[in-house]
Design brief:
Radius of gyration: 22 Å
CATH class of the domain at 1-63: Mainly Alpha
Distance between the termini: 77 Å
Number of strands: 0
Largest sheet: none
Structural class: mainly alpha
């Protein structure tokens, strides 16, 4: 059986089928209601966690595009590939031009 495709309308409908509102869900998880509604449209870890626990479906299945399978695909800075950065503060003569 293929996995169910979850869009924001299906997620909201499942919450309502279980008799849950965004306000009630937010109160149960100690967050603001907007965390729940924002999670339907863009990444919000607090809202995603609350929704996935309420529905009983892992967040990775609800939003597969937000949770890539490969952990290395979203690496911003790879220190093995690029050397350590040095600050201009430590460059010789950086602040000495105006000292004369």
């Amino acid at each position: 059986m293929p996995k169910r495709k979850w869009d924001k309308y299906a997620i909201k409908a499942e919450l309502h089928r279980q008799g849950m509102t965004f306000t009630e869900l937010a109160a149960r998880h100690g967050c603001h209601r907007t965390n729940i509604s924002v999670a339907l449209d863009r990444p919000n870890s607090t809202g995603e966690k609350a929704i996935s626990e309420a529905i009983g479906v892992p967040a990775e299945e609800l939003w597969p595009d937000r949770y890539p399978k490969s952990a290395t695909s979203h690496r911003i800075y790879d220190s093995r590939r690029h050397g350590p950065c040095t600050s201009q503060k430590f460059a010789t003569g950086a602040d000495n031009e105006c000292a004369a």
